Structures are given as structure tokens and as C-alpha cells.
């Protein structure tokens, strides 16, 4: 399982093929732990299943959608190359993905016609905002579709239905059978707690800080560093 560098149809969910999508899968497989690679593949299928049913997402750039999902967790790069000491992992992923596409353009100049700065910026936005649905859902189609698929891998069919999005139980089962969830929960918790230890200043105003609080990460404290603390203690 999860050894693919191209994606077949699962439960009727079709993922587009392009050489750049295949290259992105290879990069993700090389830089992520197996549980992380499985997560991006599940998120891709779930995102296409959901978005392909939504009238307002029919004109999205499907190649861009696919590449954004595939590369969205480069900020978890186990080699450390894409992990900065001072940025949120979402920004690390966005920066790494945009830089990687630019490198592919240098290697294959014919790609330049398809990847102008606006398209590259949409790729950056889709990745940087993938943990912020309250913004991503009101951005461009590719940004929303990227976030929905990633969110679905945490929420499941019932959770998505609560927000008005359809992911069928059979689709969930087929995708999870192909890309198993083993190690996913522990991997995410470990990653988030790791960021609370290694670069805590990137977590104080994010959901990552919740892991630092709930898991009682040693030495982690964000009280006094939150925006609410700033407002509550500023002069009237």
C-alpha cells in the first residue's frame, strides 16, 4: 500500500494525471513518513470526491488542486530541508511547494506557459491556509477544495456532513483500505507537540498550541503570548 507514484480510480473518484502531479507524488513520498504520505493521498481522493459534487467548484484548476494537496505537508519533511526555525509548518509547506514548482519550470521551460505568478500564488495560498477553513472556504476554488479534502481526513463522512459537504461512506472505506490510517493519530500528535518544543513561537496563535496545552508539553506555555493577552493587558 501507498507505494504508488500515480493514482488510480478509487470508488469512482478520478484524479487527473500530469507529469507534474506524478513528480509531486514522488517528492511527497520521499519527504514524508508513511503515515503522512497516506494522509496526503487520502486527502486528495476525499477532496476530489467532495469538490466534484459542488457546483461552485466545477471550474477549479484540478492540476493545481492536486498538487496543492500532495505537497501541503512538506513542512513535515523528515529530512528537515523544508523545515524552517521560524515559520509555521503551513508556511514552510507553501514556500517549499512554490520553490519546487519554480525549479521544475527551470528544468522544463515549457511549464512556464502554465505556471504564471498568479497560479503559483494560488498554490501558496491553498497550502498556507489548509488549516484555516474560516478563511480558505472563502478564497479561490482551489484553496477551498484543498482545505476540504484535508479536513475530511480528520472529520470523516459524518463530520463533513455536519458542515454540509458530502463524502460517501463507501468512498471513505475504499480510500482508507488503499491508504491505511495506521499511525496517523499518533503521528499528528507527535508532530504538533514537536513544533511546540522546537519552535513554540509559531504555535502560540494556532491550533498547534492546543496540543502543547492538552499534552502538557514540558516547558510549553502560551499564556501571556496570545493575542487575547495583548488586548486584555493593553492600555485603555
Automatic annotation (TrEMBL):
SUPFAM superfamilies: HD-domain/PDEase-like. Pfam families: HD. Signal peptide: none annotated. CDD domains: HDc (cd00077). Residues 37-135 form the HD domain. InterPro entries: HD/PDEase_dom (IPR003607), HD_domain (IPR006674). This is HD domain-containing protein.
Amino acid at each position: 500500500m501507498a507505494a504508488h507514484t500515480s493514482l488510480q480510480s478509487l470508488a469512482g473518484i478520478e484524479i487527473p494525471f500530469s507529469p507534474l502531479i506524478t513528480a509531486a507524488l514522488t517528492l511527497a513520498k520521499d519527504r514524508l513518513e508513511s503515515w503522512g504520505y497516506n494522509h496526503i493521498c487520502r486527502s486528495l481522493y476525499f477532496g476530489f470526491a467532495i469538490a466534484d459534487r459542488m457546483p461552485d467548484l466545477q471550474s477549479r484548476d484540478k492540476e493545481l488542486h492536486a498538487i496543492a494537496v500532495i505537497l501541503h505537508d512538506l513542512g513535515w519533511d523528515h529530512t528537515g530541508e523544508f523545515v524552517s526555525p521560524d515559520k509555521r509548518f503551513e508556511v514552510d509547506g507553501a514556500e517549499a511547494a512554490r520553490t519546487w514548482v519554480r525549479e521544475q519550470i527551470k528544468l522544463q521551460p515549457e511549464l512556464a506557459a502554465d505556471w504564471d505568478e498568479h497560479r503559483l500564488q494560488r498554490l501558496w495560498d491553498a497550502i498556507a491556509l489548509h488549516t484555516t477553513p474560516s478563511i480558505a472556504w472563502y478564497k479561490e476554488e482551489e484553496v477551498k477544495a484543498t482545505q476540504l479534502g484535508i479536513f475530511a481526513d480528520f472529520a470523516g463522512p459524518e463530520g463533513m456532513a455536519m458542515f454540509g459537504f458530502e463524502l460517501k461512506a463507501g468512498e471513505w472505506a475504499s480510500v482508507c483500505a488503499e491508504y491505511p490510517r495506521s499511525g496517523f493519530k499518533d503521528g499528528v500528535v507527535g508532530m504538533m507537540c514537536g513544533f511546540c518544543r522546537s519552535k513554540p513561537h509559531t504555535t502560540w496563535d494556532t491550533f498547534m498550541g492546543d496540543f502543547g496545552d492538552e499534552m502538557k508539553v514540558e516547558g510549553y506555555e502560551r499564556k501571556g503570548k496570545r493575542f487575547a493577552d495583548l488586548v486584555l493587558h493593553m492600555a485603555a
